[in-house]
Structures are given as structure tokens and as C-alpha cells.
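Standup notes, structure subgroup. Blocker cleared on the xanthosine-5'-monophosphate input:
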Amino acid sequence: MSINEIKASEIDTDKFIAAQVADIKRTVGDGLAINALSGGVDSSAVTLLGHKALGDRLKTYFVQNGLMREGEPERVVALFAGLGVKVELVDAQDEFFAALKGVIDPELKREAITQTFYKKVFGRLVKESGAKYLLQGTILTDIDETAAGIKRQHNVFEQIGIDPQEAFGYKILEPVVQLRKDGVRKVAQALGLPAELAKRPPFPGPALAARVIGEATRERIALVRKATAITERILADVPAFQNMTILHEDRVTGMRDNAREFGLQLEIRCWDSVDARTAKPTRLPWEKLEALADELVAKVPGVVSVTYSIAKKPPSTMEVV
Ligand code: XMP
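Run returned:
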């Protein structure tokens, strides 16, 4: 199935919104649908499109998978309550950490998250709610990279020959699949999402599990969560596409309090990009880099090394996993 791209420069947002709302209405009929909100711009836009189309017949969940950033579930629920959308928190942390136990290979890690989300958690929610459809915020870039065999994005199925109805027991609707990130931002703004959300840098579906190389244990995720909060605060005024803080698997020799410490390494990436297909490292001021290193080694236990990645995409990808 080929998808007709709608470029951000060409989109008529009112027309697009009307067409998608009509399409969701037509497809779901008088039935029910569910969707999972992550707090990113794609799922936020889909949540508002779905509510416009279905009202209370769309149930919106926030899946607490244990892999989110600091304060994220509470923040997202409160923000959408302010927009008149009720979001139910689903605690699935134990299921995700069980699925990630011992998994080191990046693609297997992505697969473990996909199966837990789609088969276990959404499968259960669909059954409990009686819904037949899941609305989700897949965008064109997710599909490109999965179809090209670069990375298995957690939310791509039909384009790689997986029928969600057969595999998981429900159908998936993807109202923003013709858009890239810049187009989704325009639609999000037109839907009335606050700029804080519409302009939010992207964050991947596999969440902080994509930010640890090697096993995503509760402890390692907690560490990278703390480090991510520091980096995001220090880089908050940098107009980059996205920044990320990564925990490496290898340890390196360091020293603290005049003693040897075989410690942890963090890698910072900060990207300039328009649509995530290609990207260049942001030319961060040296003072920012220094502030990052100082605070990360001071506040994140065991960290003795902080590096900044200076390779472009390609051949790098933006995330390490
Ligand atoms: P990569 O690492 O593929 O990242 O160069 C490109 C953009 O996509 C985001 N990303 C994902 N988003 N599910 C998502 O929803 C995923 O599995 C996923 N993997 C990467 C990444 O954060 C970047 O913005």
C-alpha cells in the first residue's frame, strides 16, 4: 500500500482535520475506539482528532510502562483534563520490565515493547472496553525507516505485512500517517493543542528503553530518567529538533575522591533536523556542554564520562537503539 505524502508546506489544516474526522466517524460507525496517549505531538493530535470524531466513544489511555520521563504521566493527564479530555492511567510497568528482562539486542528490545503494548496491554484494553479500533499516531517517517529495514519502529505493522486484526485482535486507524513531524505540528496547532505540546520535541515510542544500550532494567531506566531531566533542563532554550541522553553499556576508568572508579558513561545527542530523515548535531555552545558534564557527573550516581556525539544522520541514526 503506498501512502500519499502531504507536505507540511502544502497542507490545508482545516481541510485535513475535516477529512480525518469524517473518515474516523465513517470507519468506527456507532462503535467504540481506544487510543493511547503518550504526550507526544503525534498521539496528542490523534487524541484530539478522535475526540472530535467520536466524543465519549473514544477511550483514551496513558500506558504507564515505567519507561517514561520524570513526571510525565501526571503532566499529560492534567494537560488533557484542561482540554476536556479524560485520560485513564494504566499501570503496566511490571509487564514491560518482565518483557525487557535480559534483552540486549536493539531490535529484540523494540519487539518486546511492541508485543507488550499491542498484544498484552492494548489487547486487554480492547477486550475490556469492547472497542474494535485502536487509533494511533504513526507518521510517514516511522513507516519509511521500518519498510527500509533500518529500524523496526514500534508502531508499524501493515506496511511490513502484519495484519493487526490477526496478530492482536483489533484494527488500527492512523489518521496522521500521510504527514511528517512538521505537518503534524501544524495540525496539532490548528486543533488547539497548546504550543507547549504542539512544539514539543519528539520522543520515541520505546521511550527511555531506547536510551539505554543493553538491558533496560528498572535501575538503568531510573538512572537515564534522572540524567534526561538534567539534560532537558540545561538544553531547554536551545532550538534543536531533539536532544537525548544515553546510558552506555561499557564502563570506563574514572576517579572520584582520589580513588579509582570504574564508572558509567553517558552520551548526549542533540540534533538539528526538519523531518528526522537526515540530521546534524547541533553546534552547542561550549558553556552548555560544560554545564551538562558538570551537572551530570555531580548528580547522576556512578557517571564518570559524558560525551557529545558529533556524527550526522546518516550514517548515524538519531536514537542509539
Ligand atoms: P532514528 O533513530 O530512526 O529516529 O533516526 C528518527 C526519529 O524517530 C524517533 N523514533 C521513534 N518514534 N517509535 C516512534 O514513535 C519508535 O520506535 C521510534 N524510534 C525512533 C526518534 O526519536 C527520532 O525523532
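Discussed briefly. Residues 142, 145, 151, 153-155, 202, 204-206, 242, 276, 313, 317-319 surround xanthosine-5'-monophosphate (CB under 6 Å).
Next: hand off to the docking folks.
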